[in-house]
C-alpha cells in the first residue's frame, strides 16, 4: 500500500517529483483511481460530469459533503481535497463556517478555493483557523458566467504579472499547493517558478509541478465535448455502450443468464 501523502510531503515534492491529481465523485471510481494517484480531488465538476448541469455553479455544500464521504470510503489511503462550491466563501466568516462544516462532517484533508489575490484574505483566515487550503488561479470555472465563458489566461503581459501576483498572494496566505487552470504554458511555467509551493496544472502545459484531470474526461466517458488539454486514455463511452449492447442482445436472445449464472 502506498503511503498517504501529507501537506508536508506535497510541499516537499516541488522540484523533486510531479504530483498526480485526479477527480473522483464516488467510492467505486475512487477505489480504482487511488493506486495511481497522489491526490484525489472531489471537484465541483461533478455538477457537470455527474449531474449533467451546464456549469459548476449550482453545486451545493451538501452535495460536496455527500460525495466527499463517498470518495473517502473508496480511497481510504488518498490525500483528499474537496472543492468549496460557488457562494460558500464570499467573506472570511462565511468561508470559515462552511469550511468547519466540511471538516467536521467528512474526513477530507483540505479544501480548494478559487481566486487569486482577491481571495487571499479569506484563505489566510481559514489557514489561521486550522483549515488546509489548496488554491486555484487562472481560469476559474465558478466565474464562467461573469466572464462570459471559459477563457484562456496569460495572453498578455498584464495577465502574466497578475497571475504571478495571485500565486504569491496565495502562498503568503498559507496555501500548501495550488491549481492553475487554462493558462498559456510559458506563463504557467513562470508562475510555478515564482512560488515555493507546488503548482498543479490543468490545461497549463508540462512545466508545472503536477497535473490534474477530470476522470470522466481522461477515460473518454464524457462525450459532449473534449477540451484541448484533455488526453483520452481510453474510449470509455464506446466500451460501456458495447458492453451494454451485448448484455441487451443476450437478454433478448436468452443467451443470458446461462446455467452458471443461475441458483
Could you explain the architecture of this structure?
- Helix 5 (92-105) links the parallel strand 3 (79-83) and strand 4.
- The longest helix is centred in the middle third of the chain and has 17 residues, at 157-173.
- The chain is globular, with a radius of gyration of 20 Å.
- The chain is built from 11 helices and 8 strands.
- The chain has an 8-stranded parallel beta barrel with strand order 1-2-3-4-5-6-7-8, surrounded by 5 helices.
- It has helices at residues 7-12, 27-33, 46-49, 61-74, 92-105, 120-127, 144-147, 157-173, 185-193, 215-218, 236-252, and strands at residues 19-23, 39-42, 79-83, 110-114, 133-138, 177-181, 199-202, 210-213.
- The mean pLDDT is 95.
- The protein is an alpha/beta fold.
- Helix 2 crosses helix 4.
Determine the N-to-C terminus distance: 37 Å
Count of DSSP strands:
8
How many distinct helices?
Answer: 11
How is the largest sheet built, in terms of strand order?
1-2-3-4-5-6-7-8
**Largest sheet composition:** 8 strands, parallel, barrel
User: What is the approximate shape?
Assistant: globular
* Percent range of helical residues: 25-40%
Pairing-aware structural class of the strands and helices?
alpha/beta
Low-confidence stretches: none
Strand content: 5-15%
N-to-C SSE string, H for helix and E for strand:
HEHEHHEHEHEHHEHEEHH
Q: What does the average pLDDT come to?
A: 95
Rg, nearest Å: 20 Å
Brief rundown of the structure:
It contains 11 helices and 8 strands.
Topology record:
Elements: H1 7-12, E1 19-23, H2 27-33, E2 39-42, H3 46-49, H4 61-74, E3 79-83, H5 92-105, E4 110-114, H6 120-127, E5 133-138, H7 144-147, H8 157-173, E6 177-181, H9 185-193, E7 199-202, E8 210-213, H10 215-218, H11 236-252
Parallel strand pairs: 1-2, 1-8, 2-3, 3-4, 4-5, 5-6, 6-7, 7-8
Helix pairs in contact: 2-4, 5-6, 6-8, 8-9
